[in-house]
Design goal:
single chain, 16% strand, six-stranded mixed sheet, globular, alpha/beta
Length: 297
């Protein structure tokens, strides 16, 4: 069996779709569903599975080089896939200064799973798509190494995420997902049916994500697909940051629904949905599905 055959890991697909009774929605005539992509696989949860599957098939068991920050869920998932499926992984980490510090729990997990960590300064990291920079990284990697971009977001990842949209056809009017690099939203929107729309909640500041999503859809499909929009108010201060209001919301949601919430992506998306419901952004009778893309570390 080839290394790229993820079926031997027995993913839980389609992922469960669970109704949630939350009075902040029900009193406005809204229905809330949770799309539990966090239950797909314990080591490759949620959108990480969907974005990596076709990339690993394309890699065909070759070493994989990819990119991420010090707390990257994508690096952790790639390292876990390498351990489970028997291929080498190289993680290019943003921040040369981190090389002289003890590994944080996220990077320590990557290393324990066999990933070789390569720390680069932030200027080099920003230029990671430059052919010369990439050639320099590949020169220090095994021959035939397959490159997966930051966050796993490329045309193959977008195609993989269309299945998420297909699983939700007819189940909801609005489907919300947290966004880092935009690949999941690009694929989700393409997979949804007529009359459905995808809502992205970026977890980074900057306002650049819309063009990234359009570029990803052009690369994957040759042009735009599906109805989608972004609400950029709920980043909580930026990537890997939260604020007291977000933390309080997450603790309350966990207490009410008995579901542990990942803070850097999922909590921001759910907080955004509750705020939008309270603002009257959804008409009575609307069914809203929230994609739970990952579990707490």
């Amino acid at each position: 069996m080839n290394a790229f055959d993820l079926s031997r890991l027995r993913p839980r697909l389609p992922s469960p779709l669970e109704p949630v009774e939350d009075e902040r929605f029900t009193r406005r005539g809204l229905r809330l569903l949770l799309k539990r992509d966090d239950l797909i696989h314990p080591d490759l949860p949620g959108n990480k599975w969907r974005k990596l599957a076709l990339n690993l098939r394309e890699g065909d068991g070759r070493p994989v080089l990819t990119f991420g920050g010090a707390y990257s869920n994508h690096l952790r998932a790639t390292a876990a896939a390498g351990r489970l499926l028997g291929f080498d992984t190289i993680g290019v980490v943003r921040g040369q200064e981190l090389a002289d510090r003890p590994l944080n729990p996220s990077l320590a997990r990557c290393a324990a799973d066999g990933m070789r960590l390569v720390f680069v300064d932030r200027a080099t990291y920003r230029a990671k798509a430059d052919p010369e920079v990439l050639a320099g990284l590949l020169a220090r990697s095994p021959s035939g190494t397959y490159v997966v971009p930051e966050g796993g977001s490329n045309a193959l990842a977008v195609e993989g995420c269309t299945e998420l949209g297909r699983e939700l056809r007819g189940a909801a009017d609005v489907v919300a997902v947290a966004c880092g690099t935009g690949g999941t939203l690009a694929g989700l929107a393409a997979g949804l049916g007529p009359g459905q729309r995808a809502l992205g909640v970026p977890v980074l500041r900057g306002g650049f994500l819309g063009e990234e999503i359009r570029n990803l859809q052009r690369a994957a499909f040759g042009g735009p697909r599906g109805a989608w929009s972004l609400d950029e108010r709920f980043h909580g201060g930026g990537y890997a940051r939260t604020d007291p209001a977000l933390d309080a919301f997450a603790e309350e949601f966990e207490a009410w629904h008995g579901l542990a919430i990942e803070r850097l992506y999922v909590a921001k998306m759910l907080y955004g949905l509750v705020t939008l419901a309270e603002e009257g952004a959804f008409a009575p009778g609307t069914t809203v599905a929230a994609v739970i893309t990952g579990a707490p570390s």
